[in-house]
Amino acid sequence: MSERIMLEKMIWAVVGVSPNPQKYGYKVYQKLKKCGYKVYAVNPFYENIEEDKCYKDLSSLPEIPQVVNMVISAKKGKAVIEEAAKLGIKYVWFQPGSCDKELLELTGKLGMESVQACVLVSTK
What pLDDT sits at residue 123? Predict the structure, then answer.
């Protein structure tokens, strides 16, 4: 799966978003917004990220995103991937450190496409 195909999709969810400007969850979310994507913040520990509503999970979003960007540890990823598959989400973007062999196998088994790359580097 090429990064380019996912980057053409305009509705994203960032799972593991953070209000801390030093964290990748913040940087990824802000970069996607700055590049013109419609981006949803997903993290059960926050109600807002700056002025944006933060959702507790993918099922809480007002629309189904085309791409889920994972910025959480691989240990926490299985439930998110399974939820995404149930919602019919086909594309998963794993930030560095958010994926392991088990998650890659799971996405394949569930018929999802995935990439492992840093969206901060891949977007212009």
Answer: 85
Q: Which CATH number is 105's domain given? A: 3.40.50.720
pTM above 0.85, yes or no: yes
Averages of pLDDT over runs of 10 residues in the chain (124 residues) are: 88 97 96 97 96 97 98 95 98 95 96 94 85
Q: Which residues neighbour 1 within 8 Å (Cβ) at sequence distance 6 or greater?
A: 91, 113, 114, 115
CA dihedral 116, 38, 29, 47 (to 10 degrees): -120
Q: Please return the burial class of 20, using the count of CB atoms within 10 Å of its CB with bins 0-12, 13-18 and 19+.
A: exposed
**Measured distance CA(103)–CA(80) in Å, rounded:** 10
Split into its structural domains, the chain has a count of: 1
Distances (CA, A) of 40 to 77, 99, 104, 120: 17, 20, 23, 17
Domain hosting residue 35, numbered range: 3-122
| Joined tokens for residue 44 | 């059960």
